[in-house]
Amino acid sequence: MAGAELSVVPKQFTQIKEPELMLEKVLEEEQKEDGVCRVKGHPGSAELEAGSTHGALQANIQEEELELVLATPEDNEKHIVTLQSVHFTSEDGALQELGWLEEGQVGVQPAGSGLPSLVWLGEGSQQSLHQCVAISIQEEVYSMPELERLQFQVLEENATPPGEDSRSAVSLAGSTESIKLDTGQKEEQLLVEGGLSEKAEEQFFLVEARPGEEGRDEIVLTISNFTVDEPETHPAAGEAPVEKADETHSQKKTKEVKRTFQCDICVFTSSRMSSFNRHMKTHTSEKPHVCHLCLKAFRTVTLLRNHINTHTGTRPYKCGDCDMAFVTSGELVRHRRYKHTHEKPFKCSMCKYASVEASKLKRHIRSHTGERPFQCPLCSYASKDTYKLKRHMRTHSGVHLRNLHTYKAAEMKCRYCSATFHERYALIQHQKTHKNEKRFKCEHCSYACKQERHMTVHVRTHTGEKPFACLSCDKCFRQKQLLNVHLKKYHDTNFIPTVYECPRCGKGFSRWNNMKRHSEKCDSEQEKPAPSEKGRRVKKRKPAVPKEAATTRYLVVNGAEAAAEETALMSRAPSLGGLVPIDLGEAAAGSEDLDEDLTCEMILAVMDK
DNA sequence: AGTTCTTGCGCCCTCTGCTGGTATCGC
DNA sequence: AGCGATACCAGCAGAGGGCGCAAGAACT
């Protein structure tokens, strides 16, 4: 922005911490015939001009007023303007002394005015199609938490109705999150005044608050015009901006005065009154549409109709290629993609994966990024989706047994039979009886198993089938995993076999249990065990990796609740050394929950500590 | 205002690979 | 009988398929 000169308190870009601090200034706009929008502002005297590939940008600052002139380009396409800031310096105090800044304000200050520039105007960034304003605020002026409520005055394009300022209120829920800044509250007021018709549309702004450059105590607010960020015209990262194919459409879009209906109860916003009204019903218990068959009530006719279809079995959308039928057309389309057309519109950019649904692609991408947003509250495990976490939580079920014993008023039905239960534990125990059913029985022997795949493998022991052949030698295997082990062991030159060494004699073994068995014998040969240890039953537990001196250490606490608390704490902080909390009192009482060898381990651990 | 299309979330399932424990086999 | 290797079994977790449903967006 060479040559730009402004000296003004540009309150059009003023942010005010609280509503009562809001400037009483109202922007005056003049709609000029040549499509130039003049915005009258505040004292100053300077003039800024900049050429732009999209059009001319002018900011005329005269005494007592600032005029920012946005000259539309020849093709009337909305040009892209980027305002970038420089930082408050130690001289911001001087600015306040000069009356340019009220305390807690951020002003726009032209470069080259002899005072430190606060914001300069730049032509459209080549990297972005967003119309945006970036403002940096020194943290001494605002801290992130203070940015809870800001008031912006935004220069509107010439379509803004005269007399309507575009001040917008925004609440920053999170200091580092992108949020929508909208004019909804203002419009709500205008609606009361009858100033806007319902057809008027909102203008979205995206406000991002983030810390500034490293080493600088600043906050950078970037205010982006949402309306120009059309997905169809938004270039992918790394691509040069492309001219909009439908300029008339985009121009219309950007020139419309938009508004938003914002829910006071949740974060919901909508551009349509009808959607807003429908949403608001979700916050009420009003369910005027009652099913005549079961008296269940619903908010909308459509929901009731879908519900009644579950009674009647009505599924109007029938698949032409199979017997499936669905309540909605969308379900049918999705079904056809899955089962018949195999159309997968959502393609992964990192691999060949494609999916029918966007959510599946989103889930898939986590396998590339390693993102695991779903953290287990009891251990370090984190999952990529909710179901896996839910499945994982079953492994903690023995710790949380008491939670399973709450009486539930609603009956819980067994998924395998017609039995019902009011206690979750009883249900789970019952379902286990189904789970342990060995439904798959061998035709050739008495072997039975729970899973079909195991039966498939077992049957091969009768047929002699070994479908997994090694390509490097003639060996064949009944199981793929055995082939894999073989390949690693005999044909993979990089394969380093795991060796478990006997801690007594150092002899190596390929399997931990063999080493363990050897070690016990080696132990008894080399040193006679103490009488107390002689009768000790060896507790079986999973060997740690590596297998060197895998001794479990116990943290002895007093009371079961304390033990549970410590367990939770330890699981969240593996760095604490993997201590296993255990209730000494319960152990001493000889609880059935603690076997004798565990007690011995515990005592050893106490001695160790 | 009603209807239809689209989107997103959640739930549950299967398939698969890996790993560990146990049983069995062969030397 | 002892020992090592192999076979078998089972559980957990990763990945993905398929569907139900609510709600937003678009259309009539």
From TrEMBL:
Gene3D superfamilies: Classic Zinc Finger. Residues 241-253, 520-535 have a biased composition (Basic and acidic residues). Pfam families: zf-C2H2, zf-C2H2_16. The keyword Cell inner membrane does not apply. The keyword GTP-binding does not apply. One of its GO terms (biological process) is regulation of gene expression. It is found in: Nucleus. Belongs to the CTCF zinc-finger protein family. This is CCCTC-binding factor. It comes from Sus scrofa. The gene is CTCFL.
